Amino acid sequence: MLATDDQIIDFNKQTGQAVPVSASSIYGKHVKVNFSDIVSDKADRQWVGTFGDGLYFRENKSDVFHRISELSFTDPLPIDLNILDLHLDSRDRLWIATYGRGLYMVNFKSRKIQHFNADKHNPRAIHYNDILCIYEDYSNTLWFGTDGAGISYYDEYREKFNSFTTYQTPENVNIDVVRAIVVDSAKSIWIGTSGKGSTQYEPATNSWRTFTHGRTEDKSISSNRVMSLSVDEDNELWIGTQGKGLDIFDGEKFVNYSKDSKIPLGASTIWCIYKDDQNSYWLGTRENGLVRSDKDKGEKRS
């Protein structure tokens, strides 16, 4: 399934067939909202985030979209949340990143909904309420990118949030507005920012390195506005930018894929990058919808 600005689409990646879902409420009213994200749980339900209309779920590929209040959870979930990202973690819990109201965690096993929001008097609290992205690494640590306060990560055992902000980084490193996070096979943390390029943090040596746009094309990122990140099987970093297409970084040089590059890519803005179970890479773009991409051949047609 795919989430676009104004509709949900059932997509068959083998055939390339895309069928819009005619979403309606249990009362038969058309659900016309700004969709933001979608994930599937182990019960084969699809959880759908919206910007301004909270969370919905769908069962058995039905056109009926339900509210979580229809299930037997002990805690309420506001229906007017501005949801920017959803993540189903390794323990089958649903994390909800919101703009303005922090994080929510839906525990399907305990039937509880937990709310995490900023509280300057609570040292265990998350540090900012505007959450842009969620990422879970190889150790099942959850990372959260914020719109103004760097990144936070959740310490499961101490039940507290820790953070990295611009005030804790070297002078030339700015990680205030974080759009994407990924961890590579060497355990380096990559942070994609809105306007300040991409930053690599190596915990083992406590070292930071930032890549910004410069004059030497193969030695610098093509745009400082990073929207998405992914690491492939060769430990190469895929960087989706706003306005300059896709960059792939092999640790030494950047290769750009855009309309005018040697291997062309028709889209300029890459909102998200998804690797499927066959190691194919799919790009969610602003201009060209969903694109399947190969770093040696460019766009691949189904």
Notes on the structure:
The strands form seven sheets. Strands 7-8-9-10 form a four-stranded antiparallel sheet, with no helix packed on it. Strands 11-12-13-14 form a four-stranded antiparallel sheet, with no helix packed on it. By secondary structure, the protein is mostly beta strands. The relative contact order is 0.08. It has one domain (42-300): Methylamine Dehydrogenase, Chain H, CATH 2.130.10. The two termini are 16 Å apart. Strand 4 and strand 5 form a beta hairpin. It is built from no helices and 26 strands.
How big a fraction of the residues is strand? 35-45%
Structural class, from helix and strand content? Answer: mainly beta
Number of domains: 1
- Which architecture does the CATH hierarchy give at level 2? 7 Propeller
According to DSSP, the number of beta strands is 26
Q: Radius of gyration, rounded?
A: 19 Å
Largest sheet: 4 strands, antiparallel
Helices and strands in order:
Elements: E1 2-3, E2 8-11, E3 18-21, E4 35-40, E5 45-50, E6 55-59, E7 83-88, E8 93-98, E9 103-107, E10 112-116, E11 131-136, E12 142-146, E13 151-155, E14 160-164, E15 178-183, E16 189-193, E17 198-202, E18 207-211, E19 226-231, E20 237-241, E21 246-249, E22 254-257, E23 270-275, E24 281-285, E25 290-294, E26 298-300
Antiparallel strand pairs: 1-2, 2-3, 4-5, 5-6, 7-8, 8-9, 9-10, 11-12, 12-13, 13-14, 15-16, 16-17, 17-18, 19-20, 20-21, 21-22, 23-24, 24-25, 25-26
What are the main properties of this structure?
0% helix, four-stranded antiparallel β-sheet, mainly beta, Methylamine Dehydrogenase, Chain H, 302 residues
